[in-house]
Amino acid sequence: MRRHDRRACRHGVARCQDGTDSADFPCRASAPGVASAHSPRRLVTTPASPDSAREGRAARALSALAGISAELASARALESTVDRALGTLRAFLEAQQVSLWLHTPQGLALTFTAGEDTTSEDDVRKGLRLGDSLQVVRDLEVAPIILGDRRVGALVVRTARALGDEERMLLTALANLLAPELAHAERSRQLEVEVAARTAEIERGRRFTEKIIDSLPLGLYVIDREYRIQSWNRKRETGMQGVSREEAIGRTIFEILHRQPAEMLRREFDDVFSTGRMQEYQMESVASGEARTYRITKIPMRLGDGPVSHVITIGEDVTDWKEAQERFSQAEKLAAIGQLAAGVMHEINNPLATIAACAESLGYRIEDLEKSGVTIAPETLDFLGIIENEVVRCKQIVDGLLDFSRPKQARKERVNLNDVVERTLFLLKHHVRFKKLTVQTDLDPTIGRVPQANSEQLVQVLMALLINAMDAMGEKGTVRIVTQSSTDPKRGAILEVIDSGHGIAKGEIAKIFEPFYTTKAPGQGTGLGLSICYGIVQEHGGVIEVDSTLGQGSTFRVVLPVVAQ
Ligand SMILES: Nc1ncnc2c1ncn2[C@@H]1O[C@H](COP(=O)(O)OP(=O)(O)O)[C@@H](O)[C@H]1O
Ligand SMILES: [Mg+2]
């Protein structure tokens, strides 16, 4: 193939001006068809006059340009118009390949091509380095595509023959025509990439926020002014009342929470919409199958500076917290009662002792008087007996109360709860009412020993619990005594008394450990049994728990630690 060399002809750009062609380096820049001594196509030129031949070529080039620009002006996608334009150009120039190279962030890239695929990137680069106008490198014509000061790429033609002036002009014109189109397409592509990156970022942010909301141990949903659900978190999807997010989003809250009275719901939301103030309240619900307490918070939300546009509702299950709170205040109350009782009982102890001593010496006096022949009215002795009995009763109550408030510091040793059960049952064995009951024991042989316990006191506790169970069951029934060990050393040894008695109303459970609280007939109950148990168990570092269902029975659970306190 004959080649054009810049060293030989020095024209480089559009045409050979100085006639430096040589036989070895014929100038391809000379217009084809011109009877040039060095044109490779001189043999195929028509014999027509140079002017008319030139006009013919110009007309063909113009018509090709018109076709290509019409193509580019069509509303078709850039890819297909560029493809067609390159095809047209290639056909017109009878070129082996027409290719379009674009500068991309990754480097120069062959983006469109028509014909063979043999153009090397290096050659294109070389051509672009030579200057901003049409350049020749080997068998390539490299037309840089430039828009203002932006280098967009290059339109490259590989031909076996030298191109004529008109053809080279056509090539340059096409490169210029393509420049704004390609620059625009490149800008759009960059924008697209940017938009995609931003969208991905927004999506990542949205997912992140959603994950946070889903990870909260709270039910959360958001409604708009039309009461339509806009957000619904994972926690609201779970549980018996759970509704999936897909189902909830876009529907009104009344459709989804249809178990709640719509009017009430509407009022609650309207309150927040109109006042812009947060609302908080507690709600009992049995929707999950058991009674649970929820703290509901309705929070106003504004999208701009205007009025409240949304309401966020948060539901938190506070059942355990509330129970702990109640237990805590109950324990506080009992501690206060204990302190008060201890003070009062100490005050009563002394006069009781005095009354007892006086009654005793009165008894001796009466004895002496009788011996000396004085007749004593028989009721006098009865009265004395009554005084003594009542003093003993008072003393027992005082001792009981003192046991509750400050159990006696008895000797402590390592105690096995199973032994406590055996000893208590032995003591109760002969009790008339106890004999009628069915007693089942289920003792865990692996139970750990409770360090620093007093077995007498623990027997007293179990005895009080068994007598209560007996009272609750009447003549017959079954009471189970269970011991159990647990892996939590703070709850290592557990003793349960399970009865099938009348049970305790929920509202009463908080009161049963209070001293003097009894539901038994006068004379049958003192209301001190459980308060003494409470004092003893607490002194052992443990707790008493109660589960009870009215009409079905109760479980009293003494939980003791198996680690030294
Ligand atoms: N196992 C039980 N079943 C039902 N109610 C019970 C049981 N144990 C205790 N109670 C209730 O707790 C109250 C207080 O018990 P306690 O302090 O032992 O006093 P008392 O037995 O003298 O009434 C009882 O009166 C009874 O109402
Ligand atoms: Mg009792």
Descriptive account of the structure:
The chain is α+β, with helices and mostly antiparallel strands. It has four domains: 6-190, Beta-Lactamase; 217-317, PAS domain (Beta-Lactamase); 322-405; 413-560, Heat Shock Protein 90. 46% of the residues lie in helices and 20% in strands. It has a five-stranded antiparallel sheet. A five-stranded antiparallel sheet has the order 7-6-10-9-8, sandwiched between helices. A five-stranded mixed sheet has the order 12-14-15-17-16, covered by helices on one side. Helix 11 packs across helix 13. The longest helix is centred in the middle third of the chain and has 53 residues, at 319-371. The protein binds adenosine-5'-diphosphate and magnesium ion. Magnesium ion binds next to helix 13.
What is the β-strand count?
17
Q: How many separate helices?
A: 15
Structural class: alpha+beta
Which second-level CATH architecture of the largest domain applies?
2-Layer Sandwich
What is the number of independent domains? 4
Bound molecules: adenosine-5'-diphosphate, magnesium ion
**Uncertain segments of ≥5 residues (pLDDT<50)?**
1-46
In round numbers, the mean pLDDT is 85
Strand order of the largest sheet: 2-1-5-4-3
CATH superfamily of the largest domain: GAF domain
Kindly estimate the percentage of residues that lie in beta strands according to DSSP: 15-25%
Radius of gyration (Å): 52 Å
Give the termini distance in whole angstroms: 103 Å
User: What composes the largest sheet?
Assistant: 5 strands, antiparallel
Which fold name corresponds to the CATH topology of the largest domain? Beta-Lactamase
Which word captures the global form?
rod-shaped
Question: What's the level 1 CATH class of the largest domain?
Answer: Alpha Beta
Indicate the percent of residues in helices: 40-55%
